[in-house]
């Protein structure tokens, strides 16, 4: 975040709060962002319909757009309003995240709070709070406690995003249950023609029948404005999709319903999540925006000292490499938790065996990883998926060939943690009732982090991955985990909205199409250049990069799958995709084949003092530099899509004058995602703050750079860049 | 049960098992009951549709009726079957319930097990197991584990009960959520014309849109056959209503759907509940039938020594006596569990105060009651109902005026238990996730029994009180409670099906229109003569009898409500309605006004060596005598409907020759349910096994008799009956 270069003016934990409140009783209200680039105008239409509009550098971003709600069994809160109070405030402070891309985050906005009253509906009130930052707008609805509005059910939220043109958009289909679609890039007007093709098969999907896309929704206008629509602080409310009008370019909220088709059970006093619109004429600014984090609440956890980043390997990728291993232990396809699993017929391919786990622990210890994820350790995998079965797993009973206590001791002796795996098969009710036992089991056996999974159709049946009840479920799990000092990495959960600020032990999520799909059809070479502008806007992703053996026929000549990147691009991901949780996802033996490249994964930091997005264009390229937290080390990652390009890496964030050793991991000149992906060069050079690296990237390739201080001995003989 | 007089031939725990199995490969199979009164014929229709028919003493009871299933997304299991195996067996043994109406229960049946195969559906198999007892038929479907049928979803069960005539029927409307309807008595053909009127308002009801009634369904044919249709061992399956064809008199299964409209998620190996048809030409036999208990599994609990009957009073009836007390502490109507309830505005009418509870503990101790139920002790009652709110109660936080620890000590010092109350507001998800904490809290504070409540719309939203998920929920609660040695009395749960044999700590339920409705419109004077033939067929009811102050204008002259019985009829209920849990539901001060009548409630047993239904006719009268378990004490209760009648009480179960003191509690000659209901006589006489009491009962009245041994002093001057 470039503005953060001014952070030096602020002391640690300093709070600069300038609060001015005053009231109006007029129907149109205008606020501007602190830097004056944004203007937001609130107004009531003649029939008392609340609306807002947003401009950036005098260009319209969102035309007059309606706000409000349809309620169930109650008159709508959509019209007939009068403005009965307005308040304005300005805030400029900063705060320090527990982990993150920056040591300190500036929180600087002008606020407008409009109180609206429906005089003909027994004076029912709603408030709309707008916060206009230098990077965009956030607004939410607030339902104060009031006599005539204690409890109600939302039929739909009316919020509109009335866009001004036929923008380019990077989108995935609207869906109540999955975010694991591949991105389509098109004009808004082209979405209808592309929707069917875009709606590829995904486990337990529930595509929205009307035209809708998901958030974070990334767009670019023909005149070069980048617009990102998402939400912040999704708590006790369903996730929002966006209805699309391909002719008028009007987007509108489409909340995820429950089994009854209802879209939110509300008890006042209640605040909705924030609707966020991040805008810039520079794509890099979108990635540097901390607007969503700023709109989330600080954590209520008192002790956060135990919440630390994790670099891990796992018994995982081998499950995706055809025929190699299986989560299941037995050959049977109909098992119950009450069965005696020692009586099953072993399939001979079980991955989570004592021997295999020990091998991974050895590797993790040797190379300095914090943890080893082990999937498939617990009974129930024989028929875990697809049956809408409630009691799939008990989370405490290992397979006969996984010795919990022996492995606990083995790992502890080597200073490594085993990472727990709680696949729920989307049976949230079963997980909730076993949660205390499951976390107690972890605590008793030395586990301090868990990967959760929600593959399948949700139980309670009729709920969705993104419905209000499930939104609350994930938070319940995070809070319960915190009681046990356990970190959570959720897969197939609702996509993040910055809640890792409030629940910092929920430190990573999947919630998008990740590396596993490289083994199931592959990811498009531009996929990872889109993710930072979409999925990652909400929070850290457990993308599980680091696949060195990209051609999967290596394992089995019949396997035609391949990871659609060069090896070096996999290294770059550790920098381009921020997460406090990073996996080295490939098999240990593959890392042993490329020890020099592997060194970057071993070196790269997980937590950062500062971040500089050097160049970025969604769907094309991303180059990011970061400073390791508390260390004079910097890491740079640059990636490109299917096109070769030359990345420009600057070093102007380095302390002046001094030279540092940059280790540059680069694609070989004849490498590309589909030819010679494992060919790379590694060179060491001296750089200083004035250096500029022009680095060719292969098609589907990348660049990774580590920058460290070097003593005379180490720098001897190194050339300047 | 009259057959039990032969029980003397059997030793305790003796097992007489005569098992003959043999196989046929024909399509029609006939079995008879051990006493030859019943004949059941299984046959396949030409298209391979399985059917059964039932006769009793050569009269048809159920004409040829179809069996089978409609499945979701899979071909039906309804036709195309061939019989590939049949097995027969005979069983004659007896077992001892942990508590009950008899010390020993005879289990005597002939069994037919038919294995059916759908050759054109990949040899899918289903088994139907018929057990023909001397009191009727039970049959269930069994899905063996098989390659082509591991998991499936039931769309509907096809089971038919094709009745032979336009029987008289005592019925309540089919409903997915409530059993708390008043009974209607009519011909089957009259049901359509009466359904609308019968579907009175009940909290959280979901009347079935097509014509349906609930089970237990009690009928009487024009030629004097009594027929009762219900189910036994309802586990992991939705409850069954009965579709009614008012022209052909064909009834058929109508299972309770979930939110998706599905009617059961099945994993093989699986057995459905038993469908039960109890038949006799003597109404008393219906009440003596132990067929449903016999079809339930013995308990798996290892230690049952802690499961004992309970006689209790409670802070309860005062909530129904207009204006007297409230569950809620505060006047607020919008509260959250996170609120500080000490800050609420007290409404001044809170029932569960330290003072009031102590008064009840004193009374319980003085009169020998085991426990005091206290409702309204915990935070959340201010807005507990009607909002489909999930987090209504936490089950561990008392109101400010209820001192858990002080009351625990106060009760313990007096040898009385406080009975916990867990109203869930039908939020089963909330209850499940707090269950361990809630039971731990009980254990820590000396509670060993809990009354649960499920008032409102179920959460998971879209589930019903009687759907498969909730059926499993109640059992989960019972099993979890057993881990803490806690007894459960569930209100508003699915009606019982004999599961108190398997889960004996789930020792009573409401699941019907009980005494509370006497304060909300009143119960018809014949209501309690119907209940034993309907609701009580499944298991013990917490009917909460014992209301002495029947005219509720006593509390408030504007209160026009009244309990539609005489005082004596309330005494008789303790015998006519079997339960190991019995409440003396009236206010302590009312018992103090009638100490002589109250003596019967104090004396009456809760557990029995034997039971003799002396005379019974559904809707008209019931007279039952029982011998107290392990004591030479007998208790008789007789009730009538709105008509006066003379009950005939025999004493032929008394040991021969010897005289006993009978204390006869009788309606006064000018008493009736609506005039002088509190006028009664109490007389002591000597009776022996040859005595017969002809006792006039008032309209809406009853008679209660206690019979004890007396020494010379006690019997002196007593007349013979």
TrEMBL record, chains A, B:
UniProt-listed InterPro entries: Aldolase_TIM, GH, GH-type_carb-bd, GH97_C, GH97_catalytic, GH97_N, Glycosyl_hydrolase_97
Residue ranges of every copy of the Glycosyl-hydrolase 97 C-terminal oligomerisation domain listed in the record: 607-708
Domain called Glycosyl-hydrolase 97 catalytic: residue spans: 316-512
Keyword field contains Hydrolase: yes
Signal sequence segment: 1-28
Domain of life: Bacteria
Domain Glycosyl-hydrolase 97 N-terminal per the UniProt entry, residue ranges: 31-298
MF-aspect GO terms: carbohydrate binding; hydrolase activity
TM spans (from-to): none
Alphabetized UniProt keyword annotations: Calcium, Hydrolase, Signal
Known cofactor(s): Ca(2+)
Gene3D superfamilies found in the cross-reference section: 2.70.98.10, Aldolase class I
Subunit structure, interactors included: Monomer.
Designated name of the protein: Glycoside hydrolase family 97 protein
Organism: Pontibacter arcticus
High-level lineage: Bacteria, Pseudomonadati, Bacteroidota, Cytophagia, Cytophagales
């Amino acid at each position: 975040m470039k503005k953060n270069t001014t952070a030096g003016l602020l002391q640690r934990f300093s709070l600069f709060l300038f609060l001015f409140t005053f009231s109006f009783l007029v129907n149109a209200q205008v606020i501007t962002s602190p830097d004056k680039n944004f203007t937001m105008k609130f107004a009531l239409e003649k029939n008392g319909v609340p609306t807002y509009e947003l401009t950036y550098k005098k260009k319209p971003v969102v035309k007059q757009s309606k706000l409000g709600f349809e309620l169930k069994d109650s008159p709508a809160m959509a019209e007939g309003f009068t403005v009965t109070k307005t308040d304005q405030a300005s805030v400029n402070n900063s705060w320090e995240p527990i982990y993150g891309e920056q040591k300190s985050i500036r929180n600087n906005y002008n606020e407008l709070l409009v109180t609206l009253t429906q005089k003909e509906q027994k004076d029912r009130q709603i408030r709309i709070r707008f916060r206009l930052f230098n990077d965009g707008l956030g607004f939410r609805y607030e339902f104060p406690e009031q006599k005539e509005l204690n409890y109600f059910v939302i039929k739909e939220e009316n919020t509109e995003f009335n866009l001004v043109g036929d923008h380019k958009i990077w989108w995935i289909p609207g869906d109540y249950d999955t975010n694991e679609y591949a991105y389509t890039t098109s004009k808004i007007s082209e979405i209808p023609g592309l929707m069917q093709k875009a709606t590829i098969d995904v486990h337990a999907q529930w595509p929205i029948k009307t035209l809708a896309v998901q958030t974070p929704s990334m767009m670019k206008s023909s005149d070069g404005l980048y617009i990102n629509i998402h939400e912040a602080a999704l708590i006790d409310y369903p996730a929002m999709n966006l209805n699309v009008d391909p002719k008028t370019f009007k987007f509108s909220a489409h909340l995820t319903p429950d089994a009854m088709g209802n879209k939110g059970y509300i008890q006042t006093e209640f605040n909705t999540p924030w609707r966020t619109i991040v805008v810039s004429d520079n794509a890099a600014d979108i990635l540097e925006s901390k607007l969503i984090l700023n709109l989330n609440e600080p954590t209520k956890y008192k002790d956060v000292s135990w919440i630390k980043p994790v670099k891990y390997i796992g018994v995982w990728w081998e499950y995706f490499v055809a025929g190699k291993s299986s989560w299941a232990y037995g050959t049977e396809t109909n098992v119950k938790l009450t069965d005696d699993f020692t009586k099953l017929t072993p399939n001979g391919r079980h991955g989570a065996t004592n021997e295999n786990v020990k091998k991974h622990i050895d590797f993790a210890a040797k190379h300095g990883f914090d943890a080893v994820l082990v999937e498939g350790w617990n009974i129930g995998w024989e028929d875990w998926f697809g049956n809408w079965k409630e009691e799939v797993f008990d989370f405490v009973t290992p397979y006969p060939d996984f010795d919990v206590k022996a492995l606990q001791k083995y790992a502890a002796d080597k200073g490594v943690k085993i990472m727990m795996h709680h696949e729920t098969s989307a049976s949230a009710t079963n997980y909730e009732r076993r949660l205390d036992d499951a976390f107690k089991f972890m605590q008793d056996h030395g586990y301090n982090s868990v990967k959760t999974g929600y593959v399948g159709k949700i139980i309670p049946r009729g709920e969705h991955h993104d419905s209000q009840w499930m939104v609350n479920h994930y938070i319940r799990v995070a809070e319960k985990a915190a009681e046990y000092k356990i970190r959570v990495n959720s897969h197939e959960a609702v996509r993040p909205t910055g809640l890792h600020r409030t629940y910092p032990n929920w430190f990573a999520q999947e919630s998008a199409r990740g590396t596993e799909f490289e083994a199931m059809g592959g990811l498009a070479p531009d996929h990872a250049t889109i993710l930072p502008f979409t999925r990652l806007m909400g929070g850290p992703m457990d993308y599980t990069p680091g696949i060195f053996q990209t051609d999967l026929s290596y394992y089995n000549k019949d396997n035609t799958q391949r990871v659609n990147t060069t090896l070096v691009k996999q290294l770059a991901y550790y920098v381009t995709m921020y997460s406090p949780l990073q996996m080295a996802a490939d098999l240990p033996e593959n890392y042993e084949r490329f020890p020099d490249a592997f060194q970057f994964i071993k070196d790269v930091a997980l937590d950062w003092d500062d971040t500089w997005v050097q160049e970025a264009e969604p769907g094309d390229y991303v180059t990011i530099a970061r400073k390791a937290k508390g260390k004079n080390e910097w890491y740079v990652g640059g990636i490109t899509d299917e096109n070769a390009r030359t990345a420009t890496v600057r070093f102007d964030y380095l302390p002046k004058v001094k030279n540092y050793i940059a280790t540059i991991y680069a694609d070989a000149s004849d490498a590309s995602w589909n030819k010679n992906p494992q060919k790379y060069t590694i060179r060491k050079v001296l750089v200083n703050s004035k250096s500029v690296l022009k680095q060719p990237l292969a098609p589907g390739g990348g660049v990774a750079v580590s920058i460290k201080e070097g003593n005379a001995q180490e720098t001897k003989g190194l050339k300047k860049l």
